[in-house]
Task: inverse folding
């Protein structure tokens, strides 16, 4: 499921990043790597504030659609 579909406060685990190499590299540099835990903190006008790797990152819905995540079951 794309990260853009996650509800506020839901913990997810990144399983795949879709898109061109440069998009994947950019998201990897922001901390969105396979196996990382992410949580949607808030949503405003289609943009998401996401907690990843002990920091908060703002991404637009297009980028969030490229991040495929599943429910985080390691809690």
Result:
């Amino acid at each position: 499921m794309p990260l853009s579909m996650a509800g506020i406060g839901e913990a997810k685990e990144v399983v795949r990043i879709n898109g061109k190499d440069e998009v994947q590299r950019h998201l990897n540099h922001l901390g969105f790597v396979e196996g990382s835990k992410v949580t949607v903190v808030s949503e405003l006008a289609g943009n998401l504030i996401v907690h990843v790797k002990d920091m908060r990152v703002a991404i637009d819905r297009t980028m969030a659609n490229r991040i495929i995540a599943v429910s985080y079951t390691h809690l």
About this structure: The longest strand covers residues 37-44. The chain has a mean pLDDT of 92. The radius of gyration is 11 Å. Strands lie at 11-17, 37-44, 47-52, 55-59, 67-71.
